[in-house]
Amino acid sequence: MARRSYRPEQIIKKLREAEVLLSQGSTIGEAARKIGVTDMTYYRWRREYGGMRIE
């Protein structure tokens, strides 16, 4: 995958998309691929931004 930087707003949006996919029965690996990041990036983002909301 090409390296790309995301703004916090974009990260929170992608985490929300992943939550929807996970609630529909996708695995974390599948959800991460669908939002365009690796599993490790998903876990890191969830740890860093998981409790945040877009204002």
UniProtKB/TrEMBL annotation:
Pfam families: HTH_Tnp_1. GO terms for molecular function: DNA binding; transposase activity. Signal peptide: none annotated. GO terms for biological process: DNA transposition. This is HTH psq-type domain-containing protein. The lineage of its organism: unclassified sequences, metagenomes, ecological metagenomes.
